[in-house]
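Thread: NAP complex, take 2
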Amino acid sequence: MKISNNKILITGGASGLGLGLTERFIKENNTVIICSRRESLLKEISEKYPLVVTRRADLSKAEGREDLFNWISEKHTDLNVLINNAGIQQRMSVSDSDFFQRAKEEIAINIEAPIHLASLFIKLKSLNTIMNITSGLSFVPLVRMPVYSASKAFLHSFTLSLRHSLKQKNIEVIEVIPPALNTDLGGKGLHNYAPPVEDFIEAVFMQLLLGKNEISSGFSETMTKAGPEDLQKAFERMNGI
Ligand SMILES: NC(=O)c1ccc[n+]([C@@H]2O[C@H](COP(=O)([O-])OP(=O)(O)OC[C@H]3O[C@@H](n4cnc5c(N)ncnc54)[C@H](OP(=O)(O)O)[C@@H]3O)[C@@H](O)[C@H]2O)c1
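Output below.
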């Protein structure tokens, strides 16, 4: 994808990795639209970056995704990039009494939202790029985050098919596969051990400039290249088996 002069929607673009992408895409002379459930956060971002367009949206519901698409197709007909970044991460066990309810919430935002948004946004004539944010955990699950890890494996697989099926429409499909990053994902403080978002954003832009459509670094890059034995070893190490 070209890195300047795009009109980009970044879901979950008001915090963490999404905010890092927002800030960098503004610097590179793009128009950025972000959405999030938190009004207060959106207000904060538009005060800091007056050129960023904000929209409140709950993407866990089909109506929330349809409202967002209808608004974009009316007000921003020249949108050419969709970045499916919004996601949640929950620690849980299948034995928890609320397991299935929480699993459904995670599936709604991590799986249903990106596939539904892709199916809506390809209707825009101007759309030429979809970027999906997966994870190193797409390749090796963490047992304490069973649905999160599986949701990212789903999105990785779906992204491969999407890339192939949208070739004829000339829509490029990019997968960004982050390693652990210091954001509020899963709750404040849980990712304090991880490196800052900025270093990863740097790696993303370097790889975009090289024309790559599968972007990773560190642990996630190692996992994308690992064979079955290395994946098994990583699974045992990460899960203390
Ligand atoms: N941090 C990591 O270690 C890591 C590693 C690999 C992959 N990732 C992926 O990177 C992406 C961004 O995560 P992050 O680390 O930057 O965490 P984050 O700061 O918590 O960002 C997640 C964003 O998703 C939005 N969101 C969640 N549920 C939503 C909903 N129902 N509707 C609309 N927006 C919703 C949140 O905004 P609201 O709460 O305001 O709605 C928030 O801005 C996720 O897909 C995550 O899986 C992160």
